[in-house]
Amino acid sequence: MTENYLIIGGEGFLGRWIVDLLLRRGDKNISTFDKEQRYFDQEVIHYVGDICNYQDVTNAISKTNVTTVIHTASPPHDGIPTEVYWKVNVEGTKNVIDSCIANGVKKLIFTSSSSVIYDGVHELINADETTPYPEKAMDAYNETKTEGEKLVKSANGKNGLLTVSIRPCGIFGPNDRQLIPGAIKVMEYGQSKFQIGDNYNLVDWTYVENAAHAHLLASDKLTADSQIAGEVFIITNGTPIPFWDLIRFIWAQFNHFPSRIIKFSKFTGFIFASLAEFASYFSGKESGFTRFRVKFTTNNRYFDITKAKRLLGYEPIVDLEEGIKRACASLMKSK
Fold first, then answer.
1. Is 141 a catalytic residue?
2. Is the domain covering 5-175+205-238+302-318 a CATH 3.90.850.10 domain?
């Protein structure tokens, strides 16, 4: 059966790569749904709308008889008001689910996050899909991603709809707005000589093309008699690395090598971050140094992706080193 794809958030960072992979392999029936159109002028159908508006979503799904929805839309993970996360990640996801069920969509692939099982306090060491949700989510982003994931799982089987949730970890790549720009900002601010923590903690990352690849594997394998319907899958590059080793490798792409390293404990980092956030609150300027970033840089946070390999046939198609080189090269070209 020919699939008709709708990529919700298809003009965004991950969604754009999913569309690109579909085009590369020769799929023709592709549409995107997003707040604005930026890419793929001739190759795909574009619907401009708001995921929080049920009618906008239904219009996009019904007009092209969509059979597969891949829902990647989400606010970025930091600095967004809590109510926006609830509106998009929960209410918006419910609109997508309800519209899929009402319109007889066969497949829904949802972009979740590996951090739904991370509370920012307890370390994740070789964690997998059996790891339970924490008692308290680390932040509003992960709390709402958890709620969205639960909604998607509970929708599996309704009116023939089959669902899968993909939990990528630390997506980065060309045009990402977090890892590479964050590392460059530290370098440009002259802060690269500082290190928070002992750098013994391992962290997983996912090159964006690998995350997109995993979504398409899930879509291709999602059938009524498959083992993946209603399941969640953690996706990474499969190569955990000490946090500061990766950051320094990014800096090296720009020929920046700190001459000396001044180390601060995690506790000291929290104090400085709290002061920076306090000053930011009164100045009205976003702080580049937050308690979230201290947690992110000092905890072990790596995963076992055996389930994705076994049931999806997932293997990274771009390794970590090559992914960093491509992301940095793209940034250099854009300047």
1. yes
2. no
